[in-house]
Amino acid sequence: MAIFLEIVVSLLLVLGSVVMLIGSIGLAKFPDYFTRLHAPTKASTLGVACILIASMIFFSVDLGHMDLKAALISMFLLITAPVAAHMLAKAGLHYKVSMKENTQNKHLAKKAYLHQRPDDK
Amino acid sequence: MLNYALLIACGLICCALALNAWRLIIGPTTPDRIIAVDTMYINCIALIILLGLYQGSSSYYESALLIALLGFVSTSAFCKYLLRGDIIE
User: Fold this and answer.
1) Is the CB of residue A80 less than 8 Å away from at least one CB of chain B?
2) Beta-carbon neighbour count of residue B57 at 10 Å?
3) Residue A106 burial (CB < 10 Å; 0-12/13-18/19+)?
4) Could you tell me which residues come within 8 angstroms of residue A83 by beta carbon, excluding any fewer than 6 positions away?
5) Cα end-to-end span (Å), chain A
6) Considering the entire predicted model, what is its pTM?
7) A91 to B34: CB separation less than 8 angstroms, yes or no
């Protein structure tokens, strides 16, 4: 395996795992539910996409032809992670988890859960 | 060099899994625990891909794809249970 490809794969692996660790630190340290929802849903998706791209480069060079299974997994994760985060946010609104005091537009929470526009009564 | 990068990445992802497990244990509400599980399965996909890289075998993609599918379905089922009190109505 060429040395520059090895450098690229190693950098992508370390970058992806560092980003995933940052997401998990955010999950462990942030103060309320919605900020905790914000951290891992972005960071973990980016991190696992980096690791899957590194794996795709490695096996494409190793096997001698394009290996698109990793791209399939990362596409699936990129599609499903926002859907799962949206459902988790709705579940949190329904469960009435406590928000930080300085959260903006708190009065919209109930309307957002009930699918109403802000100016509907 | 690739071996060192694999070791570093494996250690960092294990630290991330430990932090998720901590949030899963202490999480004050049920939705916090669901977020912890959701993050844990994504980290497990990364660990399985790293194992495949370490062994030089590309047959671990199928298990990673299965975990991705079942993890999304289980997160949806948990959220549906919290929202409606039932999964299949």
Assistant:
1) yes
2) 11
3) exposed
4) B72, B76
5) 65
6) 0.87
7) yes
For the record, the structure tokens of B52 come out as 């495949």
What are the residue ranges of helices labelled H in B1-89? Answer: 2-26, 30-55, 61-84
First to last CA, chain B: 54
Contact A24 B19 (CB under 8 A): yes
For A35-89, the pLDDT digits (tens) are: 999 988 888 889 999 999 999 999 998 888 888 888 899 899 999 999 999 999 8
| Burial of A94 from C-beta contacts in 10 A (0-12 / 13-18 / 19+) | middle
How far apart (Å, rounded) are the C-alpha atoms in residues A33 and A9? 35
Q: Which domains does chain B have, with CATH numbers?
A: 2-84 (1.10.287)
- Nearest-CA distance A118 → chain B (Å): 21
Which of B14, B42, B87 to mutate: most A Cβ within 10 Å? B42
Model pLDDT, residue B76: 92
